[in-house]
């Protein structure tokens, strides 16, 4: 029985995030923590909920266990309705194909039956590894207004930044006439955000044809989009002017967290119209002990602060002991910092234990400690070090 939907979201959440190194050794990039209480995937899921899109296929792949259990049935994002929901879609054997998804287009192709079950007019393809607050309904209205075959969300970037992105060159009506992948000399600064709306019946055939092409890399940016342009399809750029960050590197993730501490942050997590939903763990309120100091910090539920923290994003369940000084850092869920430690400009992953008297970083480069690691008493972690999960530091 077909459950008819106007639009279905397909959320690509299988990214390894290799440039995050230690932070993605045991989890996919969309599962990485951010902002005190969130994970990166909370943003596209919340955008769907806020945009009235109630059917979301979440395509997982690399280290999927934590992400799968985190999403569950989608209830935290109001995506567990009887007529829709969040569906986790890992790679599976289909005919002779039992390997991982070989590209973004292949991931959607191998879930054609899932989309067909809802017989949508449109699909929106989303990235699970960006921090972005966006009303997809406005983009869909634009797509309909232009009577487009494909609409690609773009962000105006600087000329130098444009060299790192796929660039959409358009006419005065924003119709795309050329796509350039990381051009040395960009003709425009309209960078693709990796968010696409397609007419389903049309893109369905393109996906089938692409799957049967042995020369294809089965990628939207490299194969599908260029072919649609060559064949004269109506493709438009949708200009997005809100907050968007690709947190694909250690520095960019640290910077995105620090931006939340600005006097007037660009990302407004208090926006009632675009709430960011997340999974709640029913923890008690945070506690700041007598004699402790907290300056310009985000503190999540369940924190217990006895030391001094400044310019920090402190996730739920974190404990900072007496005499410890933590600056310019992100401390993730359930990590423990004992007494008399000094930490400056660090990204400390979940369930790390820093024993008393330790020094982590000097504030010049971002120092990273992977999950479940332990720094033994009086250990020194060098500035800019990359410590992988489950390490014991002497």
From TrEMBL:
Question: Which Enzyme Commission numbers does its entry carry?
Answer: 2.7.7.27
Is ATP-binding found in the keyword set? yes
Catalyzed reactions per annotation = alpha-D-glucose 1-phosphate + ATP + H(+) = ADP-alpha-D-glucose + diphosphate
**Glucose-1-phosphate adenylyltransferase/Bifunctional protein GlmU-like C-terminal hexapeptide domain: from which residue to which, for each copy?**
292-363
Give GO BP annotations, semicolon-separated.
Answer: glycogen biosynthetic process
Question: What's the top EC group for this one?
Answer: transferase
Name the InterPro entries for this protein.
Answer: ADP-Glc_PPase, ADP_Glu_pyroP_CS, GlgC_bac, GlmU/GlgC-like_hexapep, NTP_transferase_dom, Nucleotide-diphossugar_trans, Trimer_LpxA-like_sf
Instruction: Locate the site labelled Could play a key role in the communication between the regulatory and the substrate sites.
Output: 61, 100
Q: Which domain of life is it from?
A: Bacteria
SUPFAM superfamilies attached here?
Nucleotide-diphospho-sugar transferases (SSF53448), Trimeric LpxA-like enzymes (SSF51161)
For this protein, the record's Pfam families field holds:
Hexapep_GlmU, NTP_transferase
Against PROSITE patterns, the record matches this protein to:
ADP_GLC_PYROPHOSPH_1 (PS00808), ADP_GLC_PYROPHOSPH_2 (PS00809), ADP_GLC_PYROPHOSPH_3 (PS00810)
- Indicate the segments forming the Nucleotidyl transferase domain, all copies: 9-262
Listed pathway(s)? Glycan biosynthesis; glycogen biosynthesis
Listed binding positions for alpha-D-glucose 1-phosphate are 101, 166, 181-182, 192
Q: Which family does it belong to?
A: Belongs to the bacterial/plant glucose-1-phosphate adenylyltransferase family.
UniProt subunit comment? Homotetramer.
Q: Any idea what job this protein has? A: Involved in the biosynthesis of ADP-glucose, a building block required for the elongation reactions to produce glycogen. Catalyzes the reaction between ATP and alpha-D-glucose 1-phosphate (G1P) to produce pyrophosphate and ADP-Glc.
HAMAP family referenced in this protein's UniProt entry, alphabetically? GlgC
Protein name (Swiss-Prot/TrEMBL): Glucose-1-phosphate adenylyltransferase
Origin species, per record, is Anaerostipes butyraticus
